[in-house]
Amino acid sequence: MLGLENTAEIGQIEQEKAGSIGLRLNLGANDRRVPGFVSVDVCEPADQIADLTQDWPWADSTVDEVLAFDVFEHLNDKRHTMNQLWRVLRNGGRASIEVPSASKGDGGFCDPTHRVYYTLSDWEYYEVGNFARERFRNSSYYGVKADFKVLSVTETRYPTKFGGEVYKIRVELEAVK
């Protein structure tokens, strides 16, 4: 598999997989393949190995679409994650994100590798025009650069083996630049 040092080979894979549609990334994919998307994870067997806790290896505004199912909760810093997502997406680029809810059920807290927690309200802090986003827009401490249009936020309940329940939050975002 490819490491980050093989940028020429990575670029070729990205171009071949992206075709005329543009670059589409499936983050945290491991072996979960989606046709037309470059599989990205911190370990093999992904198409591209990338540590998403660091600066993401794609240039600004080069990505058309991102899938991120069950990955953002494993990253250390929400601001960094959302800023990097926004940075690599082109204007109008889309992201489909699914994370366990920290407000309902066991999902947010039962996995010992979860580092950050999400609620339905988190997305307000990245939505252009939303009071939660705008009141801190110019704050150097706050550090959020990401601007998105929130297309939808939904929550789905899944029962677990031992009688618990996991609620997953699914959010659809569009980058605004």
Description:
This protein is 18% helix and 33% strand. The chain is α/β, with parallel strands linked by helices. It has a single domain, classed as Vaccinia Virus protein VP39 (Rossmann fold). The protein has a 7-stranded mixed β-sheet with strand order 3-2-1-4-5-7-6. The chain is globular.
The CATH class assignment is: Alpha Beta
Look at the structure and give the mean pLDDT: 90
- Annotated CATH topology: Rossmann fold
Broad shape: globular
Question: What count of domains describes the coordinates?
Answer: 1
Strand content: 25-35%
The CATH architecture category equals 3-Layer(aba) Sandwich
What order do the helices and strands come in, and which of them pair?
Elements: H1 7-18, E1 23-27, E2 38-41, E3 48-49, E4 63-69, H2 78-88, E5 89-105, H3 107-110, H4 131-134, E6 148-159, E7 165-175
Parallel strand pairs: 1-2, 1-4, 2-3, 4-5
Antiparallel strand pairs: 5-7, 6-7
Put the structure in a nutshell.
This protein is of the alpha/beta class.
Name the descriptors:
18% helix; globular; disordered N terminus; single chain; alpha/beta; Rossmann fold; seven-stranded mixed sheet; 177 residues
